[in-house]
Amino acid sequence: MLDIETKQITIFLLVIVSLLGIANLNKDLVGLSVLGIALEDKNFEIEDNVINLNSLTLRQKIGQMIFTLAKIENRDLLQEMNIGGIYFWQKENEDVYETEIDYFQKEMEIPFFVGIDLEGCWNPFDNFEKFPAFNEIKDESDAYTVGKNHGEILKKLGFNINFSPVVDQEDTIWGCRSFSNNVAGNAVYYIRGLQGQGIIATAKHYPGKTLIGRDPHKSVEFSVIEDEDLEPFKWAANNNVGAVMVSHLVTSGKVDSGFSPSVVSGNVINGLKKDFDGLVLSDEVGMNGLKGVYSRDERAMYIDLVNAGNDVILDFRIEPWHLFKVVSIIENAVETGEISEERIDDAVIKILKAKGFKVKRKV
Amino acid sequence: MKLRDVNYILLFLGIVLVVNLFYPLSFSGNVVAENLGCEVNGNYVSDVNLCCSEMSKFLSCEDGVCVNGDYVISVEEDALDYCKERGYNVRY
Fold first, then answer.
1. Which residues, numbered 59 to 118 in chain A, qualify as contacts with chain B under a Cβ-Cβ cut-off of 8 Å?
2. Is the ipTM of this structure higher than 0.85?
3. Among A31, A150, A160, A196, which residue carries the largest CB count within 10 Å?
């Protein structure tokens, strides 16, 4: 009798371990489904472009705050989780971009933000479209033309947000990412050209001084922010730039991050929000400046990112289980009171408005 | 080995696999991030995660060197291994 029971237990455990093995090898929607982890149904109330915020669950609202990589194999999961934005790497040609973006956006009631870095130095469309580097831009009229040209190709391919322009005053590493003179003026005209084509511009990286070489032997360096570093951001805000990206630098001077990376400093982001009411995006969270600080406490990092005031979190880890974990961390933090649901709602309202919706709350 | 012992092993394996599904465990081959970086347009960048992130943008690279217009980034094998281990989609 005991032998039969033991054999039955062995068979049962073999089946379970096999299924878990499959899930581990293929950590995607299939893997999660094997464990019966249900993803929530979407019952969005959208009429005449007016969306009822209360028709999104907490997890679906948190999903909107995540901007991740557009890996085609993850498309179903990204759709199911109601992820807010997808970022594209360089692709072979225009057709690949158009086809993949179309595939991602298919049947999405709340469309993805579709973003890329089409910047001063980095041109992901180098295979089929050439643009001048930002340090080659001569004047404001030139800046406007480049912005307009960037916007035209982005619009054509299906993008709706560009992580550009870089508005640092000095670039000692790349030498071509930022404007070589009149940074504030050129940035404004670039933004006008880009946003005139319906693409959201992103002034980065607040509060500046992010493109300067650093001493690799120092674990933490303070960047002293001056008025001239902030000027391009103020001008961009006054000219309705859609988004600002916040850096991981520890800063002092005119913007004091209080020994923390700027992106998790409420002081920094609240200061930004005094003059700016658009989207606040974190720089990608995988980089040393932030990751190094939170190496032992990933949960605290995501909570601090939300509480500091970021509306959108750029997280380019491509494993689907990681996204599931991030959403769960933030959801749990709301449930325990570490993050207020009002903070989440404020961010999501801005996101939905940037996506073209009017937002209401109806019980 | 008795069947009961096999069951204990399977149970342990099952627990490890469940944990690894949500919190991947690293057993070996960790490349340490310290002292790793890359060269961007001739200038050294000590943030290896930034290097990985930037390299991931390129469609193709050759022998750890990626070129896009005026933008040239190069990484050594150690940094490349680090990027790959961390799951960055670096093409090389």
1. 69, 71, 89-92, 117
2. no
3. A150
